[in-house]
Specification:
single chain, alpha+beta, Immunoglobulin-like, 4-stranded antiparallel β-sheet, 8 strands, 30% helix
């Protein structure tokens, strides 16, 4: 076996190992399943804002869910169920389409049936303020892109290393 063939073999092995390492550690972006948790609170306008996340990894639920809020006042009276809608603030965020809670003490329950059943109940005091800011989220984002970027950078670096080794080996044999 010549030196060029031997070096090319090592370069191929290094490239294959790098690809396997990169692909083996990549986390599929759509591989979410399992239980979800619901966190919500009033939005300062008489509505609610809901954050839905997967329990296992904390990522926001990006699938279609069907959140419905029910509310019981301190005096025992209840409101008709309100379907929450996906919010433009970010993935995994749902809001009431319009205010439905009057000022006072409420027990609010939000329930979903898909992608997995979940329910959460919060006792809250609703104080409606005319100057309340729009509902905001504490969405830290999905760090999955970081893994893909690191994997892509690894592939590029390994490719450059292989190219460098091939060029070096050809110069030495010429």
């Amino acid at each position: 076996m010549t030196r060029t063939t031997q070096r090319s073999g090592w370069a191929a092995i290094a490239l294959t190992a790098g690809l396997l390492l990169t692909l083996g550690t990549a986390v599929p972006a759509t591989a979410h399943e399992g239980p979800i948790e619901l966190e919500f609170d009033q939005d300062g306008r008489g509505g609610v804002t809901l954050l839905a996340r997967y329990v296992e990894d904390g990522h926001p639920v990006t699938e279609i869910i069907d959140p419905v809020a029910t509310a019981i006042a301190a005096d025992g009276s209840s409101l008709d169920p309100v379907k929450l809608v996906s919010a433009p603030e970010g993935q995994g965020v749902w809001v009431s389409p319009e205010p439905f809670l009057e000022p006072g003490f409420w027990t609010v329950t939000v329930t979903v049936t898909t992608p997995s059943p979940a329910s959460s109940t919060v006792n809250m005091e609703v104080v409606v303020s005319d100057d309340a800011p729009p509902a905001s989220t504490d969405d830290t984002g999905d760090a999955g892109w970081l893994l893909w970027a690191a994997g892509g950078a690894s592939v590029v670096l390994i490719g450059l290393l292989v190219a460098l080794l091939v060029v070096r080996s050809r110069r030495k044999t010429s």
